[in-house]
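User: Structure please.
Assistant: Input sequence and predicted structure:
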Amino acid sequence: MLMAIASLGTGILVGLIFSALKLPLPAPPVLAGIMGIIGIFLGGEIWKYCAERFFS
């Protein structure tokens, strides 16, 4: 949980800095970013499942 809070805090800080400097935010469009994160998570979980089922 501490890592999630630290990540959120860092993201807020970076967002504030970029907005204050009037720079575009260093993040993909919201839906594309969320889908990318979900895809990375699912890929990791699928690999764990396959590794346990077929390679052990």
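Residues 2-54 form one domain.
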